[in-house]
Every structure is written in structure tokens, then in C-alpha cells.
Specification:
Residues 7-118 form the Response regulatory domain. By secondary structure, the chain is of the alpha/beta class. 40% of the residues lie in helices and 19% in strands. It contains 5 helices and 5 strands; from the N terminus they run βαβαβαβαβα. It has a 5-stranded parallel beta sheet, with helices on both faces. It is globular, with a radius of gyration of 14 Å.
């Protein structure tokens, strides 16, 4: 099992929700790595990341494309999609790929989902390579 706090990478082109998510996750005991674009995350790499939270609507590579790419380069890495948009097609597409939260999201529900995604059935941190 990995030593230290689980690392959650956050990608959002809007600094306000990015900072808010950082504060929420860090207050719950997670380490965070924040990025203003999918491209900056990919340049930094996914090494050491235990979970990814990404906004859907971003310039350049959007959250759907990032989720799909991450599934290829780091299979098993949990990816949560977040959005302020209310298009039904976005919601259905996001749910098909896993966890989805609409902004503003319920902090307790998000933290519970993060905890569940990071725990394996034995209660440890899930790390798949």
C-alpha cells in the first residue's frame, strides 16, 4: 500500500472552483495537485495521482476527452467529472463513464464518493497500475 495521503488531481479552467475543491479535499486529509487545463495535467503527468476530478467544459481538451485519454494511459484511475452546465446529453455521457457532479455540488457527497473510489474492498488505498 502507498504511504502518505492519497493524491487527488483537480483540473478546472476557473480558479475559484479549483481553489474551493483544493480546500475541501485538503481539509479532508487528501493531498491535491491543481491544474487550469487538461494539457497542463498531462505535461505534469499522472504519476502518484490516486484520483482525478476534472471539469467538463474547458477550452482545449475538455473533461470528456481527458477522461477517455486517462482511461487509456492509466487504466483503473478513478475520474470524476464536474460541470456547471445543465445539458442532459452531458449528464448522460458523464454518468456512462463513472462519477458525475453538478456545480455547486454537495461537499459531503463528493467527499464520500472520493473516499469510496479510493478504498479497495480490504479498506486500503486502491492503486492500479
Amino acid at each position: 500500500m502507498k504511504q502518505g495521503r492519497p493524491v487527488v488531481a483537480i483540473v478546472d479552467d476557473d480558479p475559484r472552483p479549483l481553489e474551493s475543491l483544493e480546500e475541501l479535499l485538503e481539509s479532508a486529509g487528501y493531498a491535491t495537485r491543481s491544474f487550469l487545463s487538461a494539457e497542463s495535467l498531462l505535461l505534469d503527468g499522472l504519476s502518484g495521482v490516486d484520483l482525478l476530478i476534472t471539469d467538463i467544459g474547458m477550452p482545449g481538451m475538455n473533461g470528456f476527452a481527458l477522461r477517455d485519454l486517462v482511461a487509456k494511459i492509466s487504466p483503473g484511475l478513478p475520474v470524476f467529472l464536474i460541470t456547471a452546465r445543465h445539458e442532459l446529453a452531458d449528464r448522460e455521457r458523464a454518468i456512462d463513464g463513472g462519477s458525475f457532479f453538478r456545480k455547486p455540488f454537495d461537499a459531503k457527497a463528493l467527499l464520500a464518493a472520493v473516499g469510496d473510489a479510493l478504498r479497495d474492498p480490504k479498506g486500503g488505498i486502491r492503486r492500479e497500475k
